[in-house]
Each structure stands twice: as C-alpha cells, then as structure tokens.
C-alpha cells in the first residue's frame, strides 16, 4: 500500500448538492497541510448523482478514492468501511455536509503529533438545527452516559481524528449494530477533546430522519448497557409488591363488607391497561436485545462493496 499520513473518511448519502464544495474545502485544507493524504468517499447507496460525481472526482484527482456500497447500509457502517480501507497513519472521520469544519483538521493533526491517539470534536454549539434535534440529542447523550459504564463523552459526534492503532483495535470489534463513537471510547487510548461550533448544513437536507435517529440511539444504549433489561426486574418487583398489598385489601373488604365490592369496572380497566402496557414495553426491550443477538448470530458481513475506485488493489476486511 502507498504511504499516506492522513486518510480523510467522508460518508456520503444523497449528497449531490454538497460534494463539489466538500471536495474543494477538504482538498484546500489537505494541500496546504503539505502531508501526503487521501480522501475516501463512501457512496452509501445514494439514489441521486452522488456516485457519478465521486467517480468523476476520482478521475481528475488521484487523492480521491471511492468505496461504492451495493445499497444503503447506514452512516455508522459507512465510516467503518472507510476505516477498513484507509491507508493513513491517522484517519479523520468527517461528515460530508460540511457541518464539521475541515479547517480544524490541521489542529487535530498537531494534537495527534503531540502524542494523542484520538482527537474528538466536541460541539459547543449547533447551528441551523431544529430545537427538537438539539433537545433530543442533548437528552440522549446524557441518558447514554448515565446508563453505561463506558466513558463516552457528551455532545460528541463522529468527527474526530484517530491513530492507526485505534483503527486496528476497532477492527477487532465486528459488531453489526454499531455505535462507532461508543466503540472508540471502549477501546480507550489517549484521547483529547477539541471544541468547535457545529455549522449549518451547506446544502441539502438531513439524512437522519427520526427513524434513523432512534435506531442510532437504541444501538448506542443497547450496545453499552444492560440496564434497560434490569428495568423489568425493578418495575416488576415494585408493581408486584403494590399488587399484593392491594390484593390483601380487597380480600379483607370482601370478607367483612361483602356487599361493597360490586362496582369497580373503571379501576379494573385502569389496572389492566397499565399492566399490559408495562408488559408490552418490557417485551419490546427484550426484543430489541434479541434482535441484536440474532444479527450477530447470522454473522453476515457488515457491508457489501460493489466497486472501489483509485484503490482497487486494496483488500477488504475479513469479518468472522
Ligand atoms: N449518511 C450516510 N448514510 C446514511 C445517512 C447519512 O452515509 O444512511 C452520511 C451523510 O451523507 C452525512 C453524514 O452521514 O455525510 C451525516 O448525516 P447528516 O448530515 O444527514 O446527519 P445530521 O448532521 O443531520 O445529524
Ligand atoms: Mg449533517
């Protein structure tokens, strides 16, 4: 493999409106830096012209490499593929929509040279995002932190620089439902935060609809905590105790005041609905875990590559 100091990994899903600008700003930063570099763009099964545009960039600039997925596998899998194919001594993972400023990369590399293995971007503010998105993100990062024993920093996305040895460690974690930033905390190494203001999306719309956000949140929590399962035990025990006390009260009432217990449809329905709700919720939580176990048991590869460009000779990963 050729010698590369920095591989930049950019996942792209339906980003035709931003690719040219992303390419321009990234290349400028990397050229000014004066280190050998490559920019790996992952076309995550886009339905628009993203693939064609990347292909065209590959032809005019050999620094650009493409991994073309056979279908949409999702953001977390796309950055995993980028790391699998990257040749650099360090790698920078950055969103394709310019919400993470490429101009921060030289600073990240400087900190990396000081001896840090992970330099992660911590968002001190987010622009151009809805109140709903900011609020749910804030809550999610804090809930995740409260639920897990792994030290996952809050308000931190996937924008970061990692050393090759961190990447090699990550390759030993072939989990299917990936929450990559959590895995990076799990492997450890010397980490440092670099604060930045998250910009607005350059063009186009978010590729993270609510459904994908929920999936990512559940992956984050379920891959790093059993606590939701314990919830069943706690709620179950408390409700059983309350039910038992109520049962005794009802029996006493029935024994001493036999005529007073005819009415009660409303309370019966209320209790029944409440308990059924709790039971279904708990079954759902167990189901989420079982589904993930099933995914692991099938042992399918994480993604299917349909074609590589400007790095055809590189070997893909061997997932067990
Ligand atoms: N992305 C992807 N596959 C997907 C969804 C998103 O590769 O299924 C990419 C997307 O092109 C972008 C990055 O992941 O480069 C972050 O997505 P987005 O900006 O839409 O998320 P947001 O910033 O709104 O959370
Ligand atoms: Mg974005």
Characteristic key phrases:
320 residues, elongated, binds magnesium ion, alpha/beta, eight-stranded mixed β-sheet, single chain, binds uridine-5'-diphosphate, 10 helices
What this model shows, in words?
This protein has about 325 residues and is α/β, with parallel strands linked by helices. It contains 10 helices and 8 strands. It has helices at about 20-35, 50-60, 75-85, 105-115, 130-145, 165-170, 180-185, 210-225, 225-255, 265-300, and strands at about 5-10, 35-45, 65-70, 90-95, 120-125, 155-165, 190-200, 305-310. An 8-stranded mixed sheet has the order 7-5-6-4-1-2-3-8, sandwiched between helices. Helix 5 packs parallel to helix 8. The longest helix is centred in the last third of the chain and has 34 residues, at about 265-300. The two termini are about 25 Å apart. Magnesium ion (MG) binds near residues 95, 97, 99, 201 and 206.
Concise synopsis of the structure shown:
The protein has 320 residues and is α/β, with parallel strands linked by helices. Helix content is 49%, strand content 18%.
Q: What is the topology, as strand order, of the major beta sheet?
A: 7-5-6-4-1-2-3-8
Task: Decide which structural class fits the backbone.
Answer: alpha/beta
Shape: elongated
Main sheet summary:
8 strands, mixed
Number of extended strands: 8
Q: Indicate the low-confidence ranges by residue numbers.
A: none
């Amino acid at each position: 493999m050729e010698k590369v100091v920095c591989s930049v990994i950019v996942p792209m899903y339906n980003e035709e409106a931003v690719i040219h600008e992303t390419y321009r700003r990234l290349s400028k930063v990397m050229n000014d830096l004066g280190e050998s570099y490559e920019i790996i763009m992952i076309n995550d099964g886009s339905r628009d012209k993203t693939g064609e545009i990347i292909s065209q960039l590959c032809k005019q600039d050999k620094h650009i490499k493409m991994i073309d997925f056979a279908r949409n596998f999702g953001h977390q899998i796309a950055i995993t593929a980028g790391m699998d194919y990257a040749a650099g001594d360090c790698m920078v993972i950055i969103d394709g929509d310019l919400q993470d400023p490429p101009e921060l990369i030289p600073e990240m590399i400087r900190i990396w040279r000081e001896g840090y293995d992970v330099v992660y971007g911590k968002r001190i503010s987010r622009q151009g995002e809805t109140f709903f998105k900011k609020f749910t993100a804030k809550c999610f990062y804090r809930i995740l932190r409260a639920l897990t024993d792994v030290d996952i920093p809050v308000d931190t996305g996937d924008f970061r620089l990692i050393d090759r040895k961190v990447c090699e460690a990550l390759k030993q974690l072939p989990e299917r439902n990936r929450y990559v930033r959590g895995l990076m905390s799990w492997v450890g190494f010397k980490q440092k935060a670099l604060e930045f203001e998250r910009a607005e999306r350059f063009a186009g719309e978010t590729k993270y609809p609510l459904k994908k956000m929920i999936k990512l949140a559940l992956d984050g929590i379920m891959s790093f905590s059993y606590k939701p399962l314990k919830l069943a035990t706690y709620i179950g025990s408390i409700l059983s105790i309350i039910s038992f006390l109520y049962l005794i009260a009802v029996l006493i009432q029935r024994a001493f005041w036999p005529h007073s217990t005819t009415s009660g449809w409303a309370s019966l329905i209320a209790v029944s609905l409440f308990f059924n709700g709790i039971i279904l919720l708990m079954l759902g939580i167990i189901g989420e875990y079982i589904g993930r176990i099933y995914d692991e048991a099938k042992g399918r590869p994480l993604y299917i590559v349909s074609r590589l460009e400007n790095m055809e000779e590189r070997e893909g990963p061997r997932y067990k």
